Every structure is written in C-alpha cells, then in structure tokens.
Amino acid sequence: MNSPNNPQSRLETIQALLLLFSVGLWGAKAILQDALSLQSQLALLIRDERLNSSSIQTNDWETWVRNEGSNRTKLIAFCYFNLCSIAYNSPPVLFTSETNLLLPGPSRLWRAESAWAWREARPTVTYTEITLQDALTRLLQRPNQGPLNNLSSLGNYVLIHALIQHIYLLKQTSFAHTSPFDIHRGLKAEDVEEVAQALRVWQLGFEEHRMRITQSAQQMGSENFPGGPVSFDATALSRLAHIRLHTDLVPARALESREPYEAANIFNNLPLLPRGPRLNKAILQAVHALSMLVKAGINYIARTKSLEWSMQHSCEKNPTLSPMKVAVGMRYEFLLTIASAVCNLECAVLLAKWLMTMASVSSTEVQTTEEKTILASIRTIVDETEYAVPIDPSLAAQQPSRIDGSLNDSQKLRQLASAVLRIWAKTFKGDHIFELVKNMGHGLEVYSNIIDKPRDQSSLGRISPGSMVE
Q: How many CB atoms lie within 10 A of CB 317?
C-alpha cells in the first residue's frame, strides 16, 4: 500500500482537493465561501510539491507520464486560481512569479495509451520546452522576439492566463492621473502598450498553432474547432485579456450572488463607460465575439457545444487511460466547462453597457467615426438573428426585419442593447454541468427586461423578482 507521504499520494490529494474546489467554485452559493477558503490550503500543498521543473530527457513512458501529469495538475490549478480571480475579482493565490513549471507537452504524447504508442508519436511531434516564466518574459520582452512557436494548445491556454494575471496585478499597483485633482486606478499608456504588444505576440503564436492543427484535422477529416475546447477557451480568454486591459468594468458580484434578479440589478447599476479610443478597442473584441457566435449559430452553440465539449475529455471515452490521466482530465473538463461562459458573460454586459452609454449621449454630443462604425456592425449582426424584431410587442407588426426607424436614437440603442443581451442569454441555455451557467443566462434575460421596460428611471436598479415580467 502506498505511503501517504510519497509524491504520488500527495499529488492525488492535490487532485482530489482541486476537484472539490472546482465544484464548489461554480456550485451553490452555500458552498462558495468554503471553496474560496479551500484554495489557500490547496495552494500551500502545491507549493510544498515545488513549483519548478527542468527538462528531463527520458525514454521511459511511465516516468514521462508522472512528470507531465504532475506539471499539468499544478498548471491546471494555476489556471483555476486565475479563473477564480477573473470571475470574482479577487487576488490570485498562485503567482506566475513563483510558478516556474514547464508548459504542457503535446496532447498526442499525453494521450498515448501505451509505451509503444508514445515512442511512435515522439518523432512526429515538434514542440518547445519552455517554462511558464520564460514564456511570459519572452512575450513581454522589448524589442519583440517574435511568436513562441510549437507550444501545445494547453500551453497557450496557460500562457494567456498568465497574461491576464499580469494585467490584474498591474492594475492593483498602477495609478494613472486623469486630472490634476483626481487619482484613478488604471494602467499607464506605456503599460497598456507593453501588454498589448505581448497579446499580439501571443496571438501570432496561437494562430500558427491553430493553422497546424487545422491542416492536420483536415487530413483526418475532422470538422471540429481547431484545437477543440482548449483552443476555443484560449480564444475567449484572449478577448477577455484585451477587455480587461482597456476597461475596468468587472461584473464579479453578479456571479457571487447566484441569483438572476440580483445579478441583473448589479449589471444595471454598473456605471456608464468613459468613451474613447481605448474603450473602443475593448468593444471591438466583444463585437467580434458576438459576430462569431451568430455566424456559428446561436441554437447550435446552445444545444450542442456546451455538452459536447464538457464531455470531450471524459474518461468513459477511453477506459484504457491511466488513473493519473483520468484524474488530470476530470479537473481539465470542469475548467473548460466554465471559462468561456465567464468570458461571454463579460462580453455581453460590456457591449450592452456601451450601447446604454451611447444611448445616454446628448444630442449636442457627436459620435465619432469609429463609434458609428461599431454601431453599424452591431446592427448588422443583430439584424441576422431573430432578435432583429423590436422587443416591444406593440411594435412587432412593424417591419420585423429591422429595429423600428420611427423611434429616436436613444430608444433604438436601448433596443439594440436588449437584443444583444438576449442573443448571449440564449447560448447559456444548453446542457451544462453547473447550474451557474444557466443562471448567467437568466440574469442577462432579466437585465434585458429592465432595459426594455424602464418604467421609472429612478427605480431601475432596485427592481425585485416580483416586479419583473420574464
């Protein structure tokens, strides 16, 4: 029988606690605080197991699996802690500066079911062995050293988490002067440019990786999203990184509430946004996310992708996998279930809040050329969906393909904001492991109702479940 103090047993303890943490993090409100307190204990255990690794050339499959499994467990925990920071706007409990682990190797090697299959696969894959710290340093380096080639899908996923953490920590330590009499926490122009450059370099490397995967998938006759759910979530997180870089709108308390009506009130009470070129960069990311969603098909995403991807790494599909791989895969599965949902929620709220900001612009203020272009893009996207029909039932008989031109600009923009929320809300209605995801969608719907029926402007932020029409 294994000693509870050997490395394998300690790693299994970490994996078990990570599973409890992940379930609690997205589970019922009653266990959320327990989950949040558990992450500190989990981080201590991970630190005890060391957060550094070096390249070890080995021809033994089982040794490689143990080393890779240990790295993946710790890095997935790093991503969980960071996702917790993203969702709840709390400090991360594990920093990139202390996480000097090698980024994960290719999934083809990891999924090999035998020593023979692993040895056969090794000569056919090319990947860069690099630690998380070195990879992040490379991205932030000036002058630009070019993209990181040959990282795995999971390696790119971990790296974009590190960039988001970098943005969070910069914001906590930066104070930009908006006027001689006001100090507002924000990033300085040079900080923004440095991180924006790092994101561009990451994007180049990630796109090259996806192109290679696409070519390989086409040869095998696959039509899935290149890189599967890992790449899909990495794409969503890259959008979120741009949004966090250029805005300070964080609807974290809405997720904590676990209650759709309370969440809708929180969304509604978020302040209007300061217009400008930086904000427009964030809005363009949200518009692109909306465009991709509509092109893929709202109903298709809602009914198929959530369940399909949440089960893609299930051990039931491959009962021959080792216990180590099954354990790592389960934590990985829960991570992928929620990350895109959190990113989509933020995109939805940001875009709606921007439209409400534009709706509040007085007739004496002029929309910029860029703002007009963005508005035209949103109108075109919404016009391709069922939500192009005016939300107000009294207008439903009038030109169902377009927002009613008889309304003033402010009303049209409010209607557009409501439509955007309903489009995103529908994608949260599929089969999900966590009820929280459906609650997100319901919260967006209720927020849309608030925008549709502003009976009393002064009471919009105090609407109760009993006074709402669903």
A: 10
